[in-house]
Write a structure and sequence with these properties.
Involved in formation of the rod shape of the cell. May also contribute to regulation of formation of penicillin-binding proteins. The chain crosses the membrane at residues 53-73, 94-111, 131-151. The longest helix has 25 residues, at 99-123. This protein has eight helices and no strands. By secondary structure, the chain is an all-alpha fold. It is globular.
């Protein structure tokens, strides 16, 4: 119970919100620009709270996303585990980058995620994503600084006054 009072609810709540943001319906023209919210939120937790977020959490969240989004079972789990592994490997360096450089690194990871997704679709003989789906990592990169600051403020309990 004390863990909930100490802000232990923020990790599961933020992942649930990210999952729900991925389920929000968007107009057909905006659908390709949908950022990968789960990857962004999970990236924050892997960087800032590695004792609470790691490969196991990435796998479980990915399976939940596969079930919620109705995709190939294990695809998002694999994508999130790959991202979490790379983030764990370079966590010590990423933490001390300014937010602008972190955003570039996150953008590269989101681009890597699109490449992994395209490779999975290619290996399974599924149609590849159209070219405009490759703009989503750019939007995710632009969303990283405000998302990082929001989650950091929630995690550390800062108030806006």
């Amino acid at each position: 119970m004390s863990r909930l009072r100490d802000g232990g609810w923020i990790l599961p709540a933020s992942l649930c919100v990210a999952l729900l943001l991925g389920l929000l319906p968007l107009p057909e023209t905006l659908q390709p620009l949908r950022p990968y919210w789960l990857a962004l939120v999970l990236a924050y937790w892997v960087i800032e709270a590695p004792s609470r977020a790691g490969l196991g959490l990435a796998f479980c969240v990915g399976l939940a996303a596969d079930l919620a989004y109705g995709g190939l079972l294990g695809e998002q789990a694999l994508r999130l585990v790959i991202m979490a592994f790379i983030l764990q490997r370079f966590r010590a360096r990423l933490r001390f980058f300014p937010l602008s450089q972190q955003a570039l690194a996150i953008g590269a990871l989101l681009l890597n995620d699109r490449i992994v997704s395209a490779a999975i679709h290619l290996a399974l003989g599924q149609p590849t994503l159209p070219w405009h789906y490759w703009w989503a990592p750019v939007l995710g990169m632009l969303l990283w600084p405000p998302l990082f600051l929001l989650l950091d403020a929630l995690r550390l309990g800062r108030r806006g006054d």
